[in-house]
Give the backbone structure.
Amino acid sequence: MNMRLEKPTWFKRRLPTGPEYEKVRGLVDSFHLHTVCQEARCPNQWECFSDQTATFLIMGPACTRNCRFCAVQKSPVAPPDPEEPQRVAQAASTLGLSYVVITSVTRDDLDDGGASVFAETITEVKKICDGVRIEVLVPDFQGDMRALQQVIAAGPDVLNHNIETVPRLYETVRPQADYQRSLDIFRYLRGSSPKLPTKSGLMLGLGEKDDEIKATLVDLVTAGCKLLTLGQYLQPTKDHLPVERYVTPEEFDQWRSTALKIGFVEAVSGPLVRSSYHAGKLLGHCAK
Ligand code: SF4
């Protein structure tokens, strides 16, 4: 185990401030909503907001799982707020977003894992945001494909599900998840919705080996996944898993080339890359 590693220079990016940023932040707060952007103190916030993209976290703020890399608050969970779908739509409309990412904590306490809330949120956003594109970043619904189909039936433009890391590290990094169950989501969509752009993402720097990363990328493409994000794991607090290694920007560039050679339609790869980074641009490649 590494002592806390010094953050390399490429992470020295100032968090956004200024009146425009504060206006956006204030607006999101006024709708009593959670954005992953703010919750995760994402360094790309301003770039995404300027790209008219934001990521809303629904059914939070607490999660029923306990992934060791994630700063999201853990249980107890509250019943989903029936007005949240409308508030997400109103916020997206007020912010003038052209690309909305809807993600959630994992709600294993709900019969459908929260699929109906995803579906309702998609429907509400589409109702009042003309021409908006919607990406859903979904949990694994404990392998319930009827729940997943309920989300798909609402008509998102991209279905994202993060595989997060390599199978050997699942027990340590995301103990309540299952590698094959996550791949099954792409296998299911490959058959049921072959035209739907699908996407996944990995964090690097948790101790995975290069051949394990490559094998996971091959598994994703074989299962039907088309788009990929690769970013550096950052330790949210000292109570979370330590960073085993900072992957260099050059290595991330190399991984993007490798991912394209393996068969991804497009990939975004870099130390600061997160699941929704340049999401709209990534989708553009699928339409070609
Ligand atoms: S399931 Fe998602 S929100 Fe919950 S702890 Fe894991 S990564 Fe965080």
About this structure: Residues 115-128 form the longest helix (14 residues). The two ends are 45 Å apart (CA to CA).
